[in-house]
UniProtKB/TrEMBL annotation:
<dbReference type="GO" id="GO:0016020">
    <property type="term" value="C:membrane"/>
</dbReference>
<protein>
    <recommendedName>
        <fullName>CYRIA/CYRIB Rac1 binding domain-containing protein</fullName>
    </recommendedName>
</protein>
<dbReference type="InterPro" id="IPR039789">
    <property type="entry name" value="CYRI"/>
</dbReference>
<feature type="domain" description="CYRIA/CYRIB Rac1 binding">
    <location>
        <begin position="24"/>
        <end position="329"/>
    </location>
</feature>
<keyword id="KW-0472">Membrane</keyword>
<dbReference type="InterPro" id="IPR009828">
    <property type="entry name" value="CYRIA/CYRIB_Rac1-bd"/>
</dbReference>
<dbReference type="GO" id="GO:0030833">
    <property type="term" value="P:regulation of actin filament polymerization"/>
</dbReference>
<comment type="similarity">
    <text>Belongs to the CYRI family.</text>
</comment>
<keyword id="KW-0449">Lipoprotein</keyword>
<dbReference type="GO" id="GO:0031267">
    <property type="term" value="F:small GTPase binding"/>
</dbReference>
<dbReference type="Pfam" id="PF07159">
    <property type="entry name" value="CYRIA-B_Rac1-bd"/>
</dbReference>
Amino acid sequence: MGNLLRLLARDETGNSCCSHQKYDVFLDFENASPSEAEADLYKDVARVLQVSQEIIQELHQYKGAAKEIREAISDPGDDYQRRAWETVTPLVQKLKQFYLFSNDIEVIVPRILAELCGPEVTPTQHLETQQALVKQFAEILEFTLKFDELKMTTPAIQNDFSYYRRTVMRGKLESNNGTDPGEDDVTIDHQLANKMSLFYANSTPMLKILSEATSKFVTEHKEIPLENTTETLGTMAKVCQRMLENPDLIARFRREETQLFILRVMVALIILYDHVHPHGAFVKASNVDVKGCVKVLKDQPASSSENLLNALRYTTKHLNDENTPKQIKTLLSV
């Protein structure tokens, strides 16, 4: 039967042309493997995903230099200044690596979309025949939300980088007055530092990168109709929603964390759809059942759903538009 069961457009009243369609779907996010045609891109994406896992692990372990920075601010003595600098510098190197990795996401996502949204077959056929790439795309979506959640709950990231920049600037001023600030330690040039500042100043920096990469893909690939991209995103969101609504499909998950993975992917797909489609995800004509997805989220424990609901509230583009139905705004308490 394959990892993705064929979408069964089944009318609950027997009239498929006029009534709501119900989809019985199972996309095997746990075991999908690449076909020969997918192999090269799959390997490239796998390398990116390997780094993404390392970054999430490092973010979980990120402690920051709050103590050393406080001591350096309270006492201008050389010992405290040196200790703070020596603590902050390797942390900022990690932040630099995280930022540079966002460029890898910006490059790899359009390559995946070009495969999954091509006009040669329908979006549903893409999902059925390129399940390994669908799984990898889903993993990038999950990484995006995880990264941004960890960034939002780790204020030390911006504090450390701000202290670093202030120290560098002070060192340059002292250098102009004839004091050597130790230029060999300053490994981030001014232009890169500015880009990093903009990146970390955003509340959801990786989501911004992902959304912009998707929008840029739509703009630059005129040979692929916009509808192909939005329908692919919308169909994937429906797949996630139906899987989470169906206890029989949930029972097929072999790993407990798969359900939360699919929740994250579903939310990220709604957000991407909302950024890419001219009218967004919340209008009545949308290919995404936002009300159904929100209900699925609210049926989960708050520990699993609240951050995802907040992502819908605060990182979508069209939620506050006038033509967004009041019922959806009420559901999300906007």
